[in-house]
């Protein structure tokens, strides 16, 4: 197998190709890919592929864990939109899982791309994000280049280089970290100091059962319906009504599985299985408090797990412009909220996973986007059979 | 309006600017953004004769020998980082002072410590060479090296050459492995 040196390029012979990246040490490393225009920037949220959005809007680039210590990025070069000139595949230390670690501590970094081997060595010991390889169009054909260049500041400067503004809650180096110039406004939900926000850096909370059982759990999805033209993450004006549907997958302790969603009129029930009930679907856009789903806290011992998700029923999938917020309220506990602040061009968003852990409620922020519920089901290993429906 | 050349193309500077006395050759590049080792690219000029070799060791103009012995070619200084959108380095040429034996001036860019820093032209973008009229600063021609470079560490950007009584400029864009020492040796410079 041909070894590529940093900066070296080589022809790509197969249009269906992949990049396998593996890492040494005990550092948790995330692999991501960016679909870039000729100016080196993404066109929008849908052009970034990472663990939270496992495929791009055109579904020509997708990412999966390879099991163990690496990731696989699969590319169908023939399907990549013409305005995309380059696809960069990158690696960055997961600062929430491996705080203070660098890629120099994750060596050997071994990359197999389109049949070539590349072993990037971080140029500095404090580099925490690297562009591994890039695929690019040259005279009508695709080529691959070994890059191996990176940044000390991690995913932040790397994303900025490619035109993605990420809001990093995770600790960043003392230098001024770039803050999003046009972060989604919070007009649809008031800022509340008493709420618990689950973030990428702090995604999990355990609700312990105090004396007695849990009361009713209320899950609310609220969003900006797009009646006003506003500026999105990428500065482009977005308008048009957006209809989000709140839904969930459930698994009961006895093994029963199902979905609660307005689609197919599966609204559930509180007083019998599945002990989850979706309030009537708000399609009018008149309601100001969004959609509601309730879970019977008394029956929590009979529930194994619930995956709360939302999908865009009408309107262009553009989550960043919805300002979507899911809040989960359990009686006697501060409300827990999850903001859908990582945009995507995909239609389905897994928002939060509620798991029964020894009788407690463990709530984990997901905010992972999928083209359709079936793929989400697969990703969470729910194992349901899916048929199409309408409401 | 400056003529934009593609690789291998040439243009008569004497026809573009009748009565041309001097030119400024500007060279530029944009290394890819990274927090790693910095890029230090150096432009050099070789005044060569009929045999393709330098007229003398002083005909090799680079950062340690900024002016040719006859004063015809002058390197105006080194830009160590390549930052900024204008010319990174400029070389001034007084055509009247060029010795009669000079048939060509080659403009080479090499990456300093390329091997030590694992750097090459595959990691450099936006490279260009342009020729400006020394009198009035009008751009006569420009060549953007839009090639798909790889592990080359030295690059002939362009050549100024004599064709009869005319001075012409050729867009070369030819890269090769090796550094400044190799380039100098190829042009017949005696290195100490």
Would you mind describing this structure in some detail?
The complex is a heterodimer of chains A (391) and B (192). Chain A has 391 residues and is mainly β. Chain A has two domains: 9-161, Lipoxygenase-1 (Sandwich), CATH 2.60.60; 196-379, sav2460 like domains (Lipoxygenase-1), CATH 2.60.60. Chain A is 4% helix and 39% strand. Chain A is built from two helices and 26 strands. Chain A has helices at 155-161, 373-379; strands at residues 9-11, 16-22, 29-36, 48-49, 61-65, 70-76, 86-93, 110-113, 116-118, 129-138, 141-151, 196-198, 204-207, 217-222, 230-231, 237-238, 243-252, 257-260, 268-269, 276-278, 291-295, 303-314, 325-330, 336-339, 348-357, 360-370. In chain A, strands 12-24-23-14-21-20-19 form a seven-stranded mixed sheet, with no helix packed on it. Chain A has a six-stranded antiparallel sheet with strand order 1-11-10-7-3-4, covered by helices on one side. In chain A, strands 13-26-25-22-17-18 form a six-stranded antiparallel sheet. In chain A, a hairpin with a 2-residue loop joins strand 25 (348-357) and strand 26 (360-370). The longest helix of chain A has 7 residues, at 155-161. Chain A is elongated, with a radius of gyration of 22 Å. The model of chain A is unreliable at 168-195 and 227-239 (pLDDT under 50). Chain B has a single domain, classed as Lipoxygenase-1, CATH 2.60.60. Chain B has 192 residues and is mostly beta strands. Chain B is globular, with a radius of gyration of 16 Å. In chain B, the strands form two sheets. A six-stranded mixed sheet of chain B has the order 1-10-9-3-7-6, with no helix packed on it. Helix content of chain B is 6%, strand content 42%. The chains are: A mainly beta (391), B mainly beta (192). Chain A binds chain B through residues 5-9, 121-124, 127, 138, 143, 145, 147, 149-153, 157, 161, and chain B through 32-37, 117-123, 148, 150-151.
